[in-house]
């Protein structure tokens, strides 16, 4: 369930910019994607905070914001009580100068009982950013808590002190970051849930490097791994511009249609060069959306075009090789390739669906298959290699059998996972 939310925002921490948007703006966009639709921003300078937020409101247009002024000094329990919504038993209180992994806030937002987010094992890389975070029970208090009205009504004084005392006295449960799953279904890789306070000026580079790493997808093919450092460099610049993820998506789609024309007309070298460029652009739109927290259902259209060009590019090549007489059986190999891609899709579904449900990523075997398995980026390299050796028509033959091998591996892996899950379920059954 999504709860009422209060954000404690003060300048300058809440307004520190990281990867193109302020810490507070990032937090509000994240809250919206966690199901929070209403939030009250509490500040001693609400007009200043509101003025900055107006500049970047489009990606969180569905979040209803209200602003409340409080007196200077630490936020107090009494001030929380005055803004507590009448019908709410639980209130999500979040510091506006903290960067949170969306998985952590989503977990809190879906709880039905009070909890405070803590971190008992801060990674060494994060240590320089954590000096300002308070301590309790030998852990860092992260700055996000789901508070209960009954508990708050028995407290007084500074909010931070009350929460720390509640943790020490076991009157409010702690949720430790290290006990949260590390596997991210969205990224298809393990990534420890992260959080950190807004950095000081000399720590901004470190903070941005953490954010840039957090948007990199796992289970990549070999070309994508080679592209990754360049993509990260480009995103580190693009995220600070007004370029939107949708603009990046439209750009590579237009180029992809141009590649179809080049392949159909036999301009293979030009098509390969454009296709290699698309291999980089195709990774930028998703990263731009994740780094600026601008993900949306509209962005899912990109996945449809990914699948579309997985079929259309080989079809364009098959047409050229058939018409030119270079490969009379071109459409046979095309049918073999498309059929294998369909079967491979079923195999992938059987691998990734259990991984997403269990929050445990696929193992080494899947990583190897993803590294060298048949995908559009790999096939561009196959085509380029065949063109270099003067046998371009053989590329379609290689693609077809490469995809057959990939589909066979994924289907066998999917069957093995299903067998292992069934065996585990049987072993868990009670003896009669």
Q: What global shape is seen?
A: elongated
Strand content: 5-15%
CATH topology of the largest domain: Four Helix Bundle (Hemerythrin (Met), subunit A)
The CATH homologous superfamily of the largest domain is termed CDP-alcohol phosphotransferase transmembrane (TM) domain
Spell the H/E element sequence.
EEEHEHEHEEHEEEHHEEEEHHHHHHHHH
CATH class identity of the largest domain = Mainly Alpha
User: Major beta sheet, specifics?
Assistant: 8 strands, mixed
The overall pLDDT, averaged over residues, is: 91
Secondary structure: helix percent: 40-55%
Q: In the CATH hierarchy, what is the architecture of the largest domain at level 2? A: Up-down Bundle
Whole-angstrom Rg: 26 Å
Domains, number: 2
Q: Structural class from helices and strands?
A: alpha/beta
Number of helices: 15
β-strand number: 14
Describe the structure.
There is one protein chain. With 432 residues, the chain is an alpha/beta fold. It folds into two domains: 4-197, Spore Coat Polysaccharide Biosynthesis Protein SpsA, Chain A; 218-427, Four Helix Bundle (Hemerythrin (Met), subunit A) (Up-down Bundle), CATH 1.20.120.1760. 53% of the residues lie in helices and 13% in strands. Strands 1, 4, 5, 6, 8, 9, 10 and 11 form an eight-stranded mixed β-sheet that branches. Helix 9 runs antiparallel to helix 10 (268-291) and helix 11 packs antiparallel against helix 12. The relative contact order is 0.09.
Topology:
Blueprint: E1 4-8, E2 17-18, E3 21-22, H1 23-33, E4 38-43, H2 46-54, E5 64-69, H3 77-83, E6 90-95, E7 98-100, H4 102-109, E8 115-119, E9 135-136, E10 139-148, H5 149-152, H6 159-168, E11 174-176, E12 183-184, E13 189-190, E14 195-197, H7 204-213, H8 222-238, H9 245-264, H10 268-291, H11 301-323, H12 330-358, H13 364-372, H14 376-388, H15 394-427
Parallel strand pairs: 1-4, 1-6, 4-5, 8-11
Antiparallel strand pairs: 2-3, 6-10, 7-14, 8-10, 9-10, 12-13
């Amino acid at each position: 369930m999504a709860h009422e939310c209060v954000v404690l925002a003060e300048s300058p921490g809440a307004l520190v910019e990281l990867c193109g948007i302020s810490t507070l703006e990032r937090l509000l966009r994240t809250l919206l994607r966690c199901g929070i639709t209403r939030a009250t921003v509490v500040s001693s300078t609400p007009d200043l905070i509101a003025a900055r937020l107006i500049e970047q409101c489009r990606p969180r247009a569905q979040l209803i914001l209200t602003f409340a002024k409080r007196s200077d000094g630490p936020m107090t329990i009494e001030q929380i009580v005055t803004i507590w919504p009448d019908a709410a038993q639980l209130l999500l209180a979040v510091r506006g100068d903290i960067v949170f992994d969306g998985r952590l806030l989503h977990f809190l937002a879906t709880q039905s009982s009070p909890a405070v987010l803590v971190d008992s094992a801060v990674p060494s890389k994060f240590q320089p950013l954590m000096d300002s975070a308070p301590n309790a029970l030998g852990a860092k208090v992260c700055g996000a808590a789901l508070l209960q009205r009954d508990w708050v009504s028995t407290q007084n004084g500074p909010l931070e002190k009350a929460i720390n005392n509640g943790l020490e006295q076991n009157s409010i449960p702690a949720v430790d970051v290290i006990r949260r799953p590390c596997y991210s279904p969205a990224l298809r890789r393990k990534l420890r849930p992260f959080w950190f306070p807004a950095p000081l000026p000399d720590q901004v580079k470190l903070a941005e490097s953490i954010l840039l790493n957090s948007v990199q997808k796992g289970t990549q093919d070999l070309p994508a791994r080679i592209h990754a450092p360049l993509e990260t460099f480009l995103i580190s610049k693009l995220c600070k511009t007004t370029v939107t993820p949708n603009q990046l998506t439209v750009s590579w789609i237009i180029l992809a249609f141009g590649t179809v024309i080049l392949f159909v007309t036999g301009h293979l070298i030009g098509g390969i060069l454009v296709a290699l460029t698309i291999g980089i652009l195709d990774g930028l739109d998703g990263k731009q959306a994740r780094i600026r927290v601008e993900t949306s259902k509209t962005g899912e259209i990109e996945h449809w075009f990914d699948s579309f060009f997985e079929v259309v590019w080989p079809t364009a090549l098959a047409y050229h090789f058939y018409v030119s007489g270079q490969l009379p059986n071109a459409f046979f190999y095309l049918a073999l390739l498309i059929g294998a891609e369909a079967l491979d899709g079923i195999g992938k579904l059987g691998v990734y669906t259990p991984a997403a449900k269990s929050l445990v990523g696929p193992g080494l075997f899947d990583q190897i298959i993803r590294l060298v398995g048949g995908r559009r980026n790999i096939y561009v390299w196959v085509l380029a290699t065949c063109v270099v050796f003067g046998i371009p028509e053989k590329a379609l033959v290689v693609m077809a059998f490469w995809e057959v091998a990939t589909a066979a591996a994924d289907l066998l892996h999917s069957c093995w996972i299903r067998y292992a899950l069934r065996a585990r379920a049987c072993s868990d059954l009670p003896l009669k």
